[in-house]
Every structure is written in C-alpha cells, then in structure tokens.
Give the backbone structure.
Amino acid sequence: MNIAVAGTGYVGLVTGTCLAEMGQTVVCFDVQKEKIAALQQRRSPIYEPGLEQLIQKNMSAGRLSFTADEKKAYGEADIVFLAVGTPEQEDGSANLTYIEEAVRSIARNMEKDVIIVTKSTVPVGTNERIRQMMERLKPPFLRISVVSNPEFLREGSAIHDWFYGDRIVIGASKEDEEAVAVVAKLYEPLGIPMMKTDLASAEMIKYASNAFLATKISFINEIANICEKVGATIDDVAYGIGLDKRIGPQFLQAGIGYGGSCFPKDTKALVQIAGNVQHRFELLEAVIQVNNKQQSMLVEKAKQYVGCLRGKKIALLGLAFKPNTDDVREAASLVIANQLIGEGATVVAYDPIAVDNAKKHFPPSVQYADAIIEAIRGADAAFIVTEWDEIKRTPLSVFREHMRTPIVLDGRNCYSPEEARRSHVTYISIGRAPVLAGVYQTE
Ligand SMILES: NC(=O)c1ccc[n+]([C@@H]2O[C@H](COP(=O)([O-])OP(=O)(O)OC[C@H]3O[C@@H](n4cnc5c(N)ncnc54)[C@H](O)[C@@H]3O)[C@@H](O)[C@H]2O)c1
C-alpha cells in the first residue's frame, strides 16, 4: 500500500510518521513549501514530544518522505489521508476551502483507484460532498472510496495517543465496505477498539466528543466560580464529584478555560451545524459564553488585588494553550496579553517552547524573557497561564524573592494555598479562597 497524507500540521505529521513507524510507506504533502523543506532536512516544523526523533528514524528507514509536488504525493497513492486545516470562519462555521483544494489536487493527480480517509474535523455531510466532488473530477476509469476517520489525538501526547488511543472510529456508506476493511486492517496492529458506522455518525462523534469535553470544562469552571463565593474549595469539590464513576475524575480541573485549535472552533461549528437544521444548541452556546468569560477572569482579579494596571510590569508565564505544545491558537494567554496591554500594563512573557509562534500572533509590545526569573524580576504581578512542569516546579518563594510585589494570579491552580501562605505571597487561584501576603490566616 502506498499512503499519502495531505497536510503536515499537528495531525498530518503525526499520522504520516506513526503509519511509517507501523511499517507503511508514506509520503506527506503540504502546500507550505518551507514546512516541506524543513522536513526534508529532518526537522519538525512543530513541537510535539518524540515526533522529530520518529520522523528521523522513519526517513532513515526509507518509509517516510516529504514532498511539495502533488504529482509525487498522489500519483501512486492507494490511500490518501486528509489532514488539512478546517479553521473557523467569521460566522463560526468550518472553512472547507483547504479540504476542497486537496480533493481537487488528488483528483487531478491520481493514477490508481484511491481511498480517501478524512482525518480533518469536518461538518456532517462533508464526506458525502467529498465523494460527489471526486466522482465529478476524477479520471472516469478510476474508482474512489471515501472513509471518515476522525482524529482524537491530544497535542502534547499525540504519539502516545496514536498508539494507545481509546477508540478508532471508521465511518463509510454501504458501497465502501471494501475500503473500510482496508482502513481497519491498517489500524489492526494497534489493538485499539474500533467502531464502524456511517459517514454522518462518524462526523458527529468527533464534534459531540469535543463539545462534551468543553462542557465538562465550563461546568467545573462555573462550579469553581460559585465555590469562591460560598467559601467552598474546588479541589475538594472536583475530587468528590470525580469519585462518582458515572462522572469520572478527568476534565474536572478548574482554570481559566479551554483554548487551542480544536475546542473553540469545534464547539462553534457544532452550534452552526445544529443551526443549519433549525436546532438551537443552547447548552453549547452557554458553554462557549462561560469559556469566554473565564479567559478574562484573571485580569479582573488582578485589578482587584493590584489596583490600576497602567504602567505596571506584569509577568505572563506560559503562552501555549496547554503544556507540551508550541500551539498558541486560541490560547488564554493571547486574550490576557491583549487585555493587559489595553489596561496600559507592560507585559513580559515567558514560555519554554511557544515563543516563536507567540511572536506571530501577540501584540508587538509584548516583551519576551528567556527564563522565568527574568520575567518575574521586579514585576508587580505574575499570571500563570500554562501549567508547564518548569513553571509548576518553581517554588512560590522564588516569586517572593524576585517580584516587586509578590502577587501571583494562578489560572491553572499549580500551587496549594498552603505553599502560598508559607511563602508569603498573595496568591489568587480559581475556585479557592485568596491567600493574602502578610495577612495571618487560620484554616
Ligand atoms: N490539532 C489537533 O489537536 C487536532 C486533533 C484532532 C483533529 N484535528 C483536526 O485535524 C485537522 C488538521 O488540524 P491541525 O491542527 O493538524 O492543522 P494545522 O493547521 O496544524 O495543519 C494543517 C496543514 O494543512 C496544510 N494544507 C492546507 N491546505 C492544504 C492542501 N490543499 N494540501 C496539503 N496541505 C494543505 C497547511 O499548510 C498546514 O500545514 C483540522 O480539521 C483539525 O480540526 C486537530
């Protein structure tokens, strides 16, 4: 089997590399020539733990190659995985132009029967439209099949998730049963539970999964906000809820909301998908609203404890939307940086990995530090936005030592209130009582 992958982003690159690691021959194609040039020199254009080593290993073994030439990519392909972006448009719906471009390119260049496997997250009905486009554009003597195979990997642990995922979903219409068997065989060695369904259900499973996870996050964040007002502690409350097996402990960490390239766009797209069939998805609308408010919460708290932010030096610790990735798309840090600058503060940011990406998206006045201590030195307040291990491992006493006024606003609950008391910092976190430096507090 010759496998081609369209798109060498977070999903395409992991898909291509992991398929090669499983012994397949894979060629990855991208329209961004600089990405392909870097990959041809064995450098990964994205940060994903373990990925670059796996790329190098499989290139050396002759199983993995990269090309910016669509003929080389699709001419010999038996299977093409679609992993191009489906970003959100102004109205929240998914932009399918990259999918359409890729489909046209496959149709133009295919020289064999081909199975198209859609990994990109696409609205319900898109795979059917892909089939219609392909039928119209392909050479008449060749056959195509279309399989929906939504991706569930998490950035930061994508390779682990490929090999040890919870499930593999394969959707297709009845006429493509042969193609389903071929795709299922590819995945078989992984031993991951596989479910087969129709195209629309497979597409819906992906959106419904992300919507449910986003709902869990907004739910626990609202509970945390109430905890602050009634004197309860979110850590105990979340633990107590999570002990119920019907609920489970995962995705109950209160914080300043979800970000990244998936939850924000997929929740909005699902609201649109529902709207298209005259169904108002009110629950999900509320989840989105709660998340938007939650991302702004730390700045409001800062004004309460620091006072006017004009002219203040604020350290922003963590820029990636979550640890172990360089992805800053829809990150809370971006919302916070813009707000702080709007308030007239000077923002000095630190992130162990995501600074290069941040520089492309953040306001130009943001300054960047090479180390945590450099960011917090002389600062009037420090915001913790991403729970990188390096940040979590920095004792609060270090903040006390280096800041002008030791006010730490922790959007990820990285520290215990006890440590804050011992370290004599003012410590404001989510869903817990504030700890005020210099104020003697009893339990
Ligand atoms: N990032 C995640 O964690 C994740 C997880 C599950 C699903 N998804 C979905 O997978 C899809 C890809 O996401 P991503 O994060 O990898 O996106 P990305 O932006 O990192 O990568 C997309 C890549 O596609 C390339 N591209 C655009 N048009 C192309 C074309 N015509 N031919 C070939 N390449 C083309 C772009 O240049 C880019 O390199 C999206 O639909 C996303 O919703 C993402």
